[in-house]
Amino acid sequence: MAAENNKTIESLDPRITRANITPDNSAEMNDLIHFQTFEVFHQKKRGSQHQHVGIVHAPNADMALLYAKEQYARREVTANLWVAPSSCISATEYHDDDIFQTAPEKLYRNPASYKVMDRIKAFKERGMKPTDEV
Amino acid sequence: MNSIDALKELLYKIADDQLIIGHRNSEWNGLGPILEEDIAFSSMAQDKMGQSEHIYNLLHQLGEKDADTVAFTRNAPQFHNSLLVEQPIGGYDFSLMRHFLFDFADFLRFEDLKNSSYQPLALVAKKFHGEIKYHTMHANTWVHQLGHGTEESNLKMQTALNFVWNMALGIFEPGPAEDILIDENIAMGEKALQEKWLEVVVPLLEKSNLKVPEQSSWNPVYGGRYGTHSEHLQPLLTEMTEVFVIDPTADW
What we know:
The structure holds 2 protein chains of 2 kinds. By secondary structure, chain A is α+β, with helices and mostly antiparallel strands. In chain A, 25% of the residues lie in helices and 16% in strands.
């Protein structure tokens, strides 16, 4: 049995064969390889908000930033990235999610009631500057 | 050697270095130490292959065969890459140290080529800047991390550095027409590049708690720029071109 475990894996993929992997060495995992997670926030352009996009595993913030770049900025237009340890995030409890159920018919709190879009549209249509009188 | 031949020689060695290290580093795909690192390392390997294609396209404009033909139909003695990049990936310690030493040389080479009198090359060098800068950040962060990690990680990186150092010096093997390249402001030349590289990598290695081998022991491994390679290059080329040679005219 011992002899069998020492045999390295032979694969059609030459890279796997070359890696000399013994079937039982996956048991050597320990705490060192369980990195913490970092939450990643992505900013498209300067001045806009950072948006949460996911997590990376890393031993520290510097490495987390390296990985965030490849995972989340490889194919996106990017101005800036933040990472923060997941353990630093405080969250509401899902069993308290009834706090988000607000009373209906509060149109006055809805931004759709404001008339500002009409003004912006009017400015654009007439090629006016924000300081001009409508 | 006229200036066009000198330029071609320079372009071949740059592109061949990038293609071969790109292929080598892509061998870690699926085997990287953690998922995030696997993705990052594979992505950088792809960057390198993409960069080599740009340089092969410049050669094509100068009358050489197209990029695929040049990349996939030459044998080892026709390649101008340094012996450093063709070495097998070994362990992650070796691959990271090679990545560190090679990418800082690559970065400084293209920083210089941004000002090349050969405009198409200067344009390409500007285009590569961001990618290669990230490659150096990735390499330096890892080397710093492992240099300051545990006694074992430091020892592994130090051993890798000692093993690879003379091969890394081989990057700067003088070409057959250094004076033409320098006189015509095409490139600063390998000697000047090596000096710049030492100014950058030696302090970074010291900051990472690693010791550069004693200067009296330096013995650059040359030959690659003139087609003399180790036994490792031809098997790599055979594997890399395995699919291409089945049908060289196939459309992808």
